[in-house]
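Q: What would this chain look like folded?
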Amino acid sequence: MPDFDVAVIGAGAAGLSVAAICSGLGLRTALIERGRMGGDCLNYGCVPSKALLAAAHAAAEARRAGRLGIRLPEPEIDWAGVRAHVQGAITRIAPNDSAARYRGMGVEVIEAAGHFTAPDELEAGGRRLTFRRCVIAAGSSPVVPDIPGLDGVPWLTNETIFGLEEPPGHLIILGGGPIGLEMAQAHARLGCLVTVIEAAPRIAAREDEELAEGLRAALLQDGVTLREGVKLARLEQLEPDSHAAEAGVVAVLEDGTRIAGTHLLLAVGRAPRLASLDLVAGNVEASARGIRTRADLRSVSNPRVWAVGDIADPEGIGPRAFTHVAGQHAGVLVRSMLFRLPGTKVDYAALPRVTYTDPELAQIGLTEAEAREQGHEDLRIHRWPLAENDRAIAEGRPEGLVKLVVSARGRLLGAGILAPRAGEMAGAYGLMIGRKLPLSALASLVLPYPTLAEAGKRAAGDFYAPKLLSPGVKRLIGLLKRLP
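A: My prediction, written as structure tokens:
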């Protein structure tokens, strides 16, 4: 008899969810983690980044309080206090992900590296463990690009930047995606010089161009320097006799421009943690993007193995490096691996993603460009600017937009939001897309007044306005008005 019904490799968001469910259903469950419980999200990603952003947003609010008639002095940044807040957030949440809590659930937590020794066996902490089912939830790591000179200069990733004891004098960020932009705005608002270098033609390249332009304007207003559509030729260590004595690295662009900074942050993507798993011994196929699985997250080569979270590469769908995908994968796994329900598969049609800058940029479903690329014809694009939203006007924050991508028949294909706390509005659009609700459900929704969410309702109402104001409807009203 196998030692465990389910062995889970990795105690990040995905692995923790799976282990809790399996143990709760009475299965003998092992959870193997070589690093810190909670994984990247708790220790190096979602939690510390949002805590740092909260401090940065507070500083920005103090600076712009004058728009409301409140005069405040320039905020004093206590870096040690900011660090304490960030660490305090991690510490407060950590017990929820702790080994002690999971052992209390009946999970056997093995705090060691794990790897395959056979298709049905793992080695962890000097022990050989046999299993009925194995779930790989080892996550991903920051990509370290092959850049000439990188090995001769100090650099940071999201795993190390939160440990800085002093604020960067000039932070150079390679990469204009969500991590790079969030860290750029956070550090700029906390008093650091920041330069973002993005090789693509624009920052937030995956996002709707119209919304990304609004985010770009916000970052520039915060003092972030953006170098878009430029490639990095090499990195150099700053010579001691330079005029910028504090700088430690020089980024040399292909056009010859030299940018000196004190710190370098690599934010150019993430790669699955595959190297230490000995997948060949486990008969587990992988691609450069992760563990190759079917749409139900089961390995294409070893029927005993499933993969969840960042490391999963479902056929025809691809990986998604979001913490909330980990929860979605856990639900798929329960139906697929435990209840053996046929037809179970991952579906990202209603998947939200958010860049947690200020304003936040949220996208649910397809962008306009993605919808056109997928062959959707006769699209209807409906917008409502926050400049015409009463709550935004009352708070002096009229910058932003809600943009709906709608089929000709009134089906919501995607929604983009650029607004303060846009992520808090994403759920309604995800529900509509996921449940295939008609746009009329949003247009007729009764919302409290005044709220930013009304912008989406007004955008949806625009879809029906031509029909309500058509000559036929007007003739009908003219007849009905004669009735007693």
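Residues 46-63 form the longest helix (18 residues).
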